[in-house]
């Protein structure tokens, strides 16, 4: 088809490309030969990640990367980026992502996440770019009726404004395609991304007290926090603690590259789960991380955290069948790489 392009001729705009999943995806894109433009306002990311990307991919590949420090809500800045670069496709990661904070700051979450997406797609349309991959989340499945979750599993009401923004942005992008069938939309529903680049040069660097399990466990391992707080041991699961489908961030990054190749020359709206298909409990994670760092990590059982589901894990058959993508790494790899990152960078990028 006429719009099929080789990676070296394809320019990808990555919003939030300095963040955790974005930065790992940028590495994979550069290694895959793509031209990459990052737009990130660095509100929850460090500029130092750019040097790390350069070190990982080397001079040749990093010459295909450009960076703009800007807010995706800033229409003028986006216009400049589209004027200066021949952008073919967009991967949209940028957004606020702290579940608890979203409950106390709904206006900020709705206006930032949804507002910036509307600005982005409007600017894309003005520049004739109608190809977008969106960072969605398994959170749209809510409390599941049946496991594993397939792409046909129903969307359920979200339990917080963050979850609603993912839910609604999926609908908004679907409406774009209804109005103009030339749009090419891929919704990637991530399960629980953890791990780090195996070099130890890039990883997750949350500001303040981590909300998510893995960064918290990693900070206990490195001595920044005393013990892990396990939120509930009375769930209907084998050991009573919550079960999730943890996926290595490098696998997730590879899933985006697979999605770009898959969408080439197509139009439509397609949903893919990106997970491993395996469920792991909180206690199993603590055990795996203890093995990775070589010491028993202390933990204490606390009450359940409001809004948490008992268990979720993905059916990944569709991504395998359609895109030829499948997760390669297991929990031990994820904990090993996360530990390498955390132990080399105890205070993250600023350390
Ligand atoms: C959370 C969000 C989800 C978001 C994802 C991003 C909720 C309800 N969901 O997923 O919308 O897309 O992060 O990665 O917050 N746990 C502990 N102790 C901790 C932290 C977590 O025991 O200090 C437990 C939780 O109860 C859960 C599991 O660990 O069983 C995973 O929690 P977390 O890493 O926060 O991810 P999710 O809640 O699955």
Would you spell out the secondary-structure blueprint of this structure?
Layout: E1 11-15, H1 20-31, E2 35-40, H2 48-62, E3 65-69, H3 75-84, E4 87-92, H4 99-104, H5 106-126, E5 131-137, H6 161-179, E6 184-190, E7 192-194, H7 213-221, E8 228-231, E9 243-244, E10 246-248, H8 249-263, E11 268-274, E12 280-281, H9 282-293, E13 299-302, H10 317-323, H11 331-344
Parallel strand pairs: 1-2, 1-4, 2-3, 4-5, 5-6, 6-11, 7-10, 8-13
Antiparallel strand pairs: 9-12
Helix pairs in contact: 1-2, 1-8, 3-5, 5-6, 7-9, 7-11, 9-11
This protein binds uridine-diphosphate-N-acetylglucosamine (UD1).
How far apart, in Å, are the first and last alpha carbons?
A: 49 Å
Quote the average pLDDT.
96
Query: What spatial order of strands do you see in the largest sheet?
Result: 3-2-1-4-5-6-11
Largest sheet: number of strands, sense, barrel closure? 7 strands, parallel
CATH homologous superfamily title of the domain at 11-195 and 247-275:
NAD(P)-binding Rossmann-like Domain
Small-molecule binders: uridine-diphosphate-N-acetylglucosamine
The overall strand count is 13
Helical segment count: 11
Secondary-structure-derived class = alpha/beta
The 3D shape can be described as globular
């Amino acid at each position: 088809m006429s719009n099929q392009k080789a990676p070296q001729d394809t320019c990808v705009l990555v919003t939030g490309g300095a963040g955790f999943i974005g930065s790992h995806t940028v590495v994979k894109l550069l290694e895959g030969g793509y031209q990459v433009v990052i737009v990130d306002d660095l509100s929850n990311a460090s500029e130092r990640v750019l040097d790390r990307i350069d070190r990982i991919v080397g001079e040749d590949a990093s010459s295909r990367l450009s960076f703009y420090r800007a807010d995706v809500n800033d229409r003028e800045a986006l216009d400049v980026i589209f004027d200066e670069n021949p952008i073919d496709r967009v991967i949209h990661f940028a957004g606020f992502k702290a579940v608890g904070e979203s409950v106390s700051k709904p206006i900020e979450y709705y206006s930032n996440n949804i507002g910036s997406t509307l600005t982005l797609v409007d600017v894309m349309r003005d520049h004739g770019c109608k190809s977008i991959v969106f960072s969605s989340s398994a959170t749209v499945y809510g409390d599941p009726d049946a496991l594993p979750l397939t792409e046909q599993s129903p969307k359920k009401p979200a339990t917080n404004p963050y979850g609603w923004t993912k839910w609604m942005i999926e609908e908004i992008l679907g409406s774009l395609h209804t109005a103009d069938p030339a749009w090419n939309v891929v919704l990637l529903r991530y399960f629980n991304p953890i791990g780090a680049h195996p070099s130890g040069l890039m990883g997750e660097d949350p500001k303040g007290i981590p909300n998510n399990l893995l960064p918290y466990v990693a900070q206990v391992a490195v001595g920044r926090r005393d013990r892990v707080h396990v939120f509930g041991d009375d769930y209907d699961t084998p050991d009573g603690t919550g079960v999730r489908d943890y996926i290595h961030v490098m696998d997730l990054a590879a899933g985006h590259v697979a999605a770009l190749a898959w969408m080439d020359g197509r139009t439509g709206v397609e949903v893919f789960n990106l997970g491993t298909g395996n469920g792991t409990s909180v206690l199993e994670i603590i055990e795996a991380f203890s093995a990775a760092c070589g010491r028993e990590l202390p933990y204490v059982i606390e009450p359940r955290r409001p809004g948490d589901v008992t268990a979720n894990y993905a059916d990944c058959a569709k991504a395998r069948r359609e895109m030829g993508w499948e997760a390669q790494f297991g929990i031990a790899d994820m904990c090993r790489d996360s530990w390498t990152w955390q132990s080399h960078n105890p205070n993250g990028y600023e350390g």
